[in-house]
Design goal:
Helix content is 36%, strand content 16%. The protein starts with a helix and ends with a helix. Strands 2-1-3-4 form a four-stranded antiparallel beta sheet. About 11% of the residues have low confidence. It is α+β, with helices and mostly antiparallel strands.
Length: 149
Amino acid sequence: MKFFSFISLFTLLLFISACSSSDAITSENKKSCPKCNMTLPTSNIHTAKLEDDSKSYYFDDFGCLVLWAKEKNISLVDKKIEVFSNDTKRYIDAKAAYFIINDKTPMSYGFGAYENEVLNSIKVEEVELKMLRGEHMANPKIRKQILGQ
């Protein structure tokens, strides 16, 4: 009987300590990419945000956003999409961004966003098309072609 009481008390204490408010706050502040479940970096570099039906979704890589939207049958044409700009270090409208394909990104898709135009940049419509075709840096054939190796 004492053993059962000890186990019950131990389990109760474990449960109470696991539900402390400081742990809850920490886990709420961390956002994960809905496509790959990777925790978003605190620096926001290479992150993107999509607003759909009054809900915001955050992604660690713009390529994840494109692939996730395709899986969910969400058209990106009329959605509010923001990307974190590598040059100005702030969120900007994805439709106004300039993308390059050979940036180092969390999921290795390579699409980095810039607020100011850069040489050989492409717009968001072309990024979406390239992602859906598999024409990104995570594809070894494309990587070799772009890097000339």
